[in-house]
Amino acid sequence: MKLYIAVGTAVLLVMAIFIIVFVAYYQQKQIRQQLILKEWQEKYRKGLLAATLQAQEHERRRIAQDLHDEIGTMLSVTKLSLNQLGRTVEHNDPGSTVLVQKTRSLLDETIANVRRISRDLVPTTLERFGLVSALEELAEKASNGEVHVELSCSDKMPTLLPQLDLTLFRIAQELINNAIKHANAENIIIDLHCQPNGVLLSVIDDGRGFDLDEILKDKKRGLGLRNIESRLNVIDGHVTFDVEEGRGSRIHIQVKNLKPEVEVEVEAV
Amino acid sequence: MLERFFHLYLEHPLELTHDLATVIPIVVGLFYANPKRKEIRFLLIYFVFLFFRNLISNIYATYRINNIFLYNFFNFIEIIGFGLTYYFNINKSNFKFYILIGSILVIIINVFFWETNEFSAGILTLTRIFGLSIALFYFVELLAEMKVKNILKHSLFWVSSGIIIHSTGTILIFLFSKIILSTRAAPDIFFAYWNFILIMYIVFCLFVSVGFWVSKYDEDNYA
Ligand SMILES: Nc1ncnc2c1ncn2[C@@H]1O[C@H](COP(=O)(O)OP(=O)(O)O)[C@@H](O)[C@H]1O
Ligand SMILES: [Mg+2]
């Protein structure tokens, strides 16, 4: 009897140790698998985001092309006909000449607008002359009597991957728009700096600032700021909001100029 | 009296080791554990009680007074201590409910098994089964919910392992305590099994000490 108790205890103990080891081993295995799954999901999400952004750019390009080629052409043809009409009218009904002239100037304005919109939709300067020129153009266009936008950048900018160029440009566009629209700023500085294996883009304004947490709390607001984050997510970039109510905002974008995981081809035009 | 006290220890060195082993989790728990965690606090209190039980039972032994009722009584504290520890660390509401009902039920049944002069096989065995069950419940929850990243840095994993080893190691001995731990049992048999119980308790103390030690990682360890 006493021996049975000893043997039984030994058997139970072996079972107990087996259970403990099994739980420890199995749990670690489960966690490892979960980690792999999470990584995979993250990758998939990034790929999806990249594809969405790419589709957006494609769509813009298509709209720009349609605007330019179809509407633009139609407008030019219309202008030609109007000119002919004008000449006929001058002979027969001099009273209507003013009306024709007015229509012509309206048409001219429309043509200019279509051209501007189609140019703004596709960052042609960016594709032809690179990020620095595109930002210069952006600063120039945004400057007027009330705001002064200035670009400062280090002399030797490394050539960036086209995808980085486009992302940085779109982000700069959004940030400058924000500074003009919301901040009531007088001076805006775009600062482009190269860093060891990366680039730092800062947009600094002297406006009224804002409370980032409050804006991100509201799901419907801050779409522009959220877009910046998702764009950066695709290229493993990083944004730092150095903002506060009552003083100018400083927003820094950091990207690595390395080959990223997710490939997005941007076709040159 | 002190002389007799020391004599007792010299006669049973394992008893001394066992009493010292109770101090390890208290020291680790007081100075190295994360005091914010509830399971640490309940277990620490449990070990302080254990320390005093040992002290009192040794004093009784020195005066040759029967101290076995202390061992029986301590099982009630054990049920409450373990019950509270796990009650506050299990998320599944039905497990929580089982633990609550189980603790109350086991305490009530144990009252009917009460014995003053002999080890109560009923109390001791039921308490082991109770400890074993909640530790296994906790393992099931650990596997089902994957709530920790590194199980080796999770304090309740070590505590549960300690409880499981201690319970499985002693449950049969306590179940047949009428034969091997009674006053009528042959002294060599009694001491062989009694020493084994002490060893199991030392192992338990060591496991809990490790659990207390890793409790500082617990906060970052939840997945
Ligand atoms: N530079 C800034 N200065 C002050 N407020 C800003 C600035 N940038 C953003 N904000 C605030 O953050 C809000 C969210 O901006 P954004 O996400 O770009 O959305 P939107 O420009 O469409 O309003 C704005 O409504 C504005 O109140
Ligand atoms: Mg905006």
UniProtKB/TrEMBL annotation, chain A:
Q: What class of enzyme is it?
A: transferase
Which ranges carry the Histidine kinase domain? 62-259
The catalytic activity, as recorded, is: ATP + protein L-histidine = ADP + protein N-phospho-L-histidine
Q: Where are the transmembrane segments?
A: 6-26
Cited CDD domains: HATPase_UhpB-NarQ-NarX-like (cd16917)
GO CC, alphabetical: membrane
GO molecular function annotation = ATP binding; phosphorelay sensor kinase activity; protein dimerization activity
NAD among the record's keywords?
Answer: no
Q: EC number(s)?
A: 2.7.13.3
**What keywords would UniProt list here?**
ATP-binding, Kinase, Membrane, Nucleotide-binding, Phosphoprotein, Transferase, Transmembrane, Transmembrane helix, Two-component regulatory system
PANTHER family the UniProt entry points to = NITRATE/NITRITE SENSOR PROTEIN NARX-RELATED, NITRATE_NITRITE SENSOR PROTEIN NARQ
Q: What is this protein called?
A: histidine kinase
Automatic annotation (TrEMBL), chain B:
Superkingdom field: Bacteria
Could you confirm whether the keyword Transmembrane helix appears in this record? yes
Please list every transmembrane segment annotated in the UniProt record, as residue ranges: 16-33, 40-63, 69-88, 95-113, 119-144, 156-181, 193-214
* Key words, A-Z: Membrane, Transmembrane, Transmembrane helix
> In its UniProt entry, what is this protein called?
Uncharacterized protein
Q: Which organism is it from?
A: Larkinella rosea
